[in-house]
Amino acid sequence: MSVMTAPAMPAAETVKPLVEVKNLGRIFDVSKPWLNRVTERLPRRLLVAAAEVTFSIATRETFALVGESGSGKSTVAKMVVGLIPPSTGEVIIDGVSMSNRKHEADRRRLRRRIQMVFQDPYASLNPRWRALDIVAEPLRAFGIAQSDIETAKQVGDLLRLVGLDPADGAKYPHEFSGGQRQRIAIARALACNPEFIVCDEPTSALDVSVQAQILNLMRDLQDRFGLTYLFISHNLAVVRHMANRIGVMYLGRLVEVAPAREMFAKPKHPYTRMLLDAVPDLDLTGRKRKPVEGEVPNPVEPPPGCPFHPRCPFANARCRVEMPLPIQAGAATVRCHAVEEGRI
Amino acid sequence: MTSVLSVRNLTVEFPTRRGILTAIDDVSFDIGPGEVLGVVGESGAGKSITGTAVIGLIEPPGRIAGGEVLLRGQRIDNLPPEQMRRIRGKRIGMVFQDPLTSLNPLYRIGDQLVETITTHTNLSNAQARTKALSLLAEVGIPAPEMRIEAYPHQFSGGMRQRVVLALALAVEPELVIADEPTTALDVSVQAQIIALLKRLCAQHGAAVMLITHDMGVIAETADRVAVMYAGRIAEIGPVRDVIKAPLHPYTKGLMGSIPSLTGESDRLVQIPGSMPRLTAIPSGCPFHPRCPRAFVPCPTFRPELQPEAHSQVACWLYHPFPVTAEAS
Predict the structure, then answer these.
(1) Which of chain A's ends, N or C, has fewer CB atoms near its CB within 10 Å?
(2) Percent of chain B with pLDDT over 70
(3) Predicted complex ipTM
(4) Cβ-contact A281, B241 below 8 angstroms
(5) CB contact under 8 A, B195 and A291
(6) Nearest chain A Cα to B243, which residue?
(7) What burial class does residue A3 get, using C-beta atoms within 10 Å of its C-beta: 0-12 exposed, 13-18 middle, 19+ buried?
């Protein structure tokens, strides 16, 4: 495998990206309370949930973040929509920085163009509100609909759009199944005509046949309204089905970013290879699987050097002390000494 | 060869104020020695209730309303609770989805293993402890001499599930019931636990009833698979046949709706609607309102499992249907 050290210009960057995430990082303080620290002589404990995360998403593209639990993918999603402020770096959407105080007015205009769909439709819908009030909330909050009649009409259209009956709007969330609830959450996200939707594990609480319905719906809506998605998932098969480009996260860092096709055909980072190898084989090809070693370490005390080295079959002395920097390898960006040195 | 577990016409009902709900309706299957039977289905299909009924842990007012459960030819569904308690843990081992709920958080894992072993065998405490250590080593817990003194919260999710496997296999059960054993785990750890479960059960010669919603796990592990829908078995057969050449339209839809890592698929196959609630199970074939190939007999007559190719399938497409259907 030849490794290019000079970064080539990928096709995606010729179009101006809608979303740019630059060097994003977030540190959580998980120390015990001050008094305990003083009496028990404990140090501060900091959890680096995300560090040096850089990627961009072009208009109408689906960018997916995959990783195991604790890899920081949801933290990144929340920072991108502005639910939690980043500790370092910034998110720029359509040229407007989400963290710079100067752009407050621009940012307010931007907010209605960004929406989010959460994992658990049992938790993300207010159980005391009727479905139509849930869907109408963004219309009212952003002053999109002028009158109650117009609101009701738009809510009906939205419910029909996601495959529900407008008459269902009078029901409460507990009267719907999980898949129908996720449809309501999607209708709410679509209410203010957003361009960019962040989906945090939108189907992992659903059964497979319902998951297929929701994934198909999300792709149809993307084609129809030209939506841009940031799609978070731990399921590689779902990601392969949805994404144009994929970023793999491990312990808060992006270890590989590559076009979807490329990543599944030729995974580069040893962690990506391991993840692909761990997916159960539905085609019954009898493919021999390499046994996966170990588990994700505690993110409060990450290993020194490359965070993946304790589980990596290709690790050497350099990996144990030096954090690899992102390098360009073909169409992919990889953080790995072994790839850089051409060892794998 | 006699099967380890035989379930015959099992029916489980839950009486409620609005009438009786039938969660399991006339389910029959067998598991042979050393065989892994996968039970797959979506939420509400009744797969967990089937497992719970086999080990006699249906919560009242739910009850087994019909049929029988035989362990090595011995009827166990009508045993008094005290006798059933002795069978559970000794002859039937159990692994549940969330390892934190199957381990007592207040006891060291060593004590829990020793308690299980001494309850069901004549071993002394010291012998049981030696056995516990070898079990922990066998399930791949590093440094078992140290870890045996640890509490469940000191283990990671994957390690906890290994401890639960050690507990389930502690006294060499004939049957292991594993209810979603890997669902709470990350993919990389999931692969480790599947491999371990498979290897251990083969070594100990235990039959396994593996309940999961994940077809991938079934494909990796099971010898035969039963597909459940609305409290009934829609199709049961060798894993290769069911996955590669499903017969029942529900199984076909289910297989098509799974995004795959290989092959090009622009759109996933979609089964319209969702699993019926127990309060409103459709008449005839319960799948007929969602079925793309439903025809004359389906809404009226209930299909029974009948042999077709290497499998058994409950669908009128494969069997001659009652002629009276045309009249109705």
Answers:
(1) N
(2) 97
(3) 0.80
(4) no
(5) yes
(6) A282
(7) middle
The residue in chain B having the minimum alpha-carbon distance to the alpha carbon of residue A176 is B274
What is the number of alpha carbons within 13 Å of residue A160 lying toward its C-beta?
8
**Long-range CB pairs of B199-206, under 8 A, 24+ apart, other chains included:** B200/B138, B200/B139, B200/B165, B200/B169, B201/B34, B201/B36, B201/B169, B201/B176, B202/B34, B204/B169, B204/B172, B204/B173, B205/B33, B205/B34, B206/B34, B206/B93, B206/B169, B206/B172, B206/B173, B206/B174, B206/B175, B206/B176
| A152 near B CB under 8 A | no
Q: Are B187 and A275 in contact (CB < 8 Å)?
A: yes
Chain A, residues 171-190, CB within 8 A of chain B, namely 177-180
Residue B261 to residue A213, Cβ atoms within 8 A: no
- List chain B pLDDT tens, one digit each, 328 residues: 578 999 999 999 999 888 889 999 999 999 998 899 999 988 888 998 999 999 998 888 899 999 999 999 999 988 998 999 889 888 999 998 887 788 999 999 999 999 999 999 899 999 999 999 999 998 888 888 889 999 998 888 888 998 999 999 888 899 999 999 888 788 878 888 888 888 888 888 889 999 998 888 898 889 999 999 999 999 999 999 999 999 999 999 998 888 887 766 678 888 888 888 888 889 999 999 999 999 888 998 999 999 988 899 999 999 887 765 444 4
Token pair 């609830």 in the structure block, residue: A181
Amino acid at A64: A
What whole-number distance in Å separates Cα of residue A334 and Cα of residue A244?
A: 17
CB contact under 8 A, A69 and B186: yes
- Which chain B residues are Cβ-neighbours of A69 within 8 angstroms? 186
Token readout for A99 is: 């963290």
Q: Which residues of B touch A66 (CB under 8 A)?
A: none
Is the pTM higher than 0.80? The answer reads yes
End-to-end CA, chain B: 45
Which of B225, B270, B287 is the mutation pick for testing A, counting most A CBs within 10 A? B270
Task: Select from B192, B213, B268 the Cβ nearest to the Cβ of A241.
Answer: B268
Closest listed residue to residue A257, CA positions, set A85, A114, A54:
A54
Nearest beta carbon to residue A283 from set B189, B213, B262: B262
In this complex, do A284 and B253 lie within 8 Å of one another by their Cβ atoms?
no
For chain B, the residues whose C-beta falls within 8 A of a C-beta of chain A are: 42-43, 156-159, 186-192, 194-195, 213-217, 219-220, 239-240, 243-244, 253-254, 256-262, 265, 267-272, 274-275
